[in-house]
Design goal:
By secondary structure, this protein is mainly beta. The chain has a single domain, classed as Porin. The strands form 2 sheets. The chain has a 16-stranded antiparallel beta barrel. A two-stranded antiparallel ribbon has the order 6-7. The two termini are 38 Å apart.
Length: 486
């Protein structure tokens, strides 16, 4: 109890203080330090070297303001671009390097995962002395109606508030990231979502046909990367919580899926480890390649959504990522996860994932992004279960967004809670298909704030073995509004 209380308080102060500092930087007019222009040149040279190599006549003048706006990806750990064309698309030649290596910041997504270099970057950016900070917020208000005999309806709030800080330290980059979620306030049972299963609301019963709420603290992490050359680096990442090197970017950070307020039912095959209480990752970047490996706590978060759980490094993963061109990012990863489910402590899991993300800007403020991913869970002991996901988003003029997501999973443990159910049926797996389509229209309220209105409809392919329980056509829908600060 003492550990939980102390960790909770310390992490709360860290996260809240982190976001307050970011907000204060935006609200005040602090001049840019001369060093902040010289510290962050593409390629990672140290501050001392930058100053010595530049005669006084060529030193840059102080910028009159420190705030920068970038459009695109939310939740991405990104630094501000201090060039005079703030807000313009980033090219390899003038882009700030990322947290983990000397490449465009747009390449970085959740944890240490990569996305295409052509991905948009979003956040309110500022500098405080040698530090660059960014913050972002997205809050959804959702009405959810899941159809069929096992459906339910619920109004809830979801989203995230995140901040980051970065500075040069010698020939390396030091960074801190914090991300908080309002999900715990929706209650321990989360929201209705047909065919989703995982985690628990009370420590005794598996959540079935519901999406569990995420923890208040989604990420409290630090990074340090050391540049070996203009195209290579080594790095370390640690989080409590954080995200290990396993799977594609988490669904709320993928450009193809971030505007969809509904969690994928393939979540526990692909990216359920994105909130892990205890993770240390080390890796290396060589040009367009990255290899990273993690030691982390295998147990998924428990039903106490406001605390910080004790860290433990009992599981392992490795991932290879490749960005051959600006528009494409690929990864393959493997993990050995110790006792992930609280209600099945004697079952371990081996997980394999592979994914491709393609993002293509076109025209004036238009973007198309698509993700294909496959995940395999090999239960030890137990079955081998697969999931496939294809999702895509078309963003026009930064106002109109159309999105779709189609999934096929080997759904299991859906019927175990029914009284008198045959044990064989209770633990059987069934191939379930799902297609969701929807859209959102954003109304700019100010330079940094947008209000959106949207909706989606979901259709299912229900196998014969499940139709007596779910019906043959449990069509579902969501209506939502959102407030986005970026």
């Amino acid at each position: 109890m003492a550990l939980r209380f102390t960790s909770h308080c310390c992490s709360a102060l860290f996260g809240i203080g982190f976001l307050v500092a970011a907000y204060a930087a935006v609200a005040q007019e602090a001049p840019l330090a001369e060093a902040s222009h010289e510290h962050h040149q593409h390629g990672g040279s140290s501050p001392s070297k930058a100053k010595k190599s530049k005669p006084p006549s060529e030193k840059k003048k102080k910028a009159p303001a420190h705030e920068h706006k970038h459009s695109g990806q939310h939740g991405t750990p990104a630094a501000a671009n201090h060039s005079s064309h703030s807000g313009a698309p980033h090219d390899h030649g003038d882009a700030m390097k990322g947290f983990l290596g000397p490449y465009p910041m747009n390449r970085e997504a959740s944890g240490t995962s990569w996305q295409p270099d052509a991905s948009p970057d979003e956040g309110v950016h500022a500098t405080i002395g040698d530090w660059m900070v960014m913050w972002h917020a997205l809050i959804n208000g959702v009405y959810d109606n899941q159809g069929g005999p096992r459906g339910d309806q619920r109004a809830f709030t979801s989203g995230m508030v995140m901040g980051m800080a970065q500075r040069q330290l010698g020939d390396g980059t030091l960074g801190f990231r914090a991300m908080l979620s309002p999900d715990p306030f929706m209650g321990p049972r989360g929201y209705p979502l047909l065919f989703a299963a995982g985690e628990t609301a009370d420590g005794r019963t598996l959540l079935v046909d519901r999406q569990h709420p995420h923890d208040l603290f989604m990420e409290l992490a630090g990074t340090y990367s050391y540049s070996l050359s203009a195209k290579s680096s080594v790095f370390i990442y640690a989080g409590l919580p954080g995200e290990p090197a396993l799977g594609p970017p988490a669904f709320m950070h993928r450009t193809s899926g971030m505007d969809n307020p509904e969690a994928p039912i393939s979540h526990h095959w692909l990216d359920s480890t994105h909130i892990t209480f205890g993770v240390v990752t080390v890796g290396a970047v060589v040009d367009t390649w990255k290899i990273d490996g993690s030691a982390f706590r295998g147990r998924e978060p428990d039903q106490h959504r406001f605390d910080i759980e004790a860290p433990r490094l009992d599981s392992f993963s490795a991932r290879l990522s490749w960005n051959p061109v600006r528009e494409l990012s690929a990864q393959v990863s493997w993990g050995r996860i110790h006792s992930p489910e609280q209600l099945e402590p004697d079952v371990d899991e081996d997980r394999i994932t592979a994914s491709l993300i393609y993002t293509q800007p076109f025209g004036d403020n238009n973007l198309w992004s698509t993700t294909f991913a496959w995940g395999r869970k090999m239960m030890r002991p137990g079955d081998t279960l697969d999931a496939f996901l294809l999702e895509s988003a078309l963003i026009l003029q930064k106002r109109y967004t159309l999105f779709l997501r189609t999934e096929r999973i080997d759904a299991h443990e859906l019927l175990h809670d029914l009284p008198g159910i045959d044990p064989g049926l209770a633990h059987a797996s069934f191939p379930v298909f799902k297609l969701s389509v929807g859209g959102i229209y954003d109304i700019p309220l100010s330079d940094h704030v947008k209000f959106g209105v949207g909706g989606l409809v979901s259709k299912y392919g229900v196998p014969d073995g499940l139709t007596p329980f779910y019906g043959s056509d449990p069509t579902s829908y969501m209506l939502f509004i959102r407030l986005k600060v970026s």
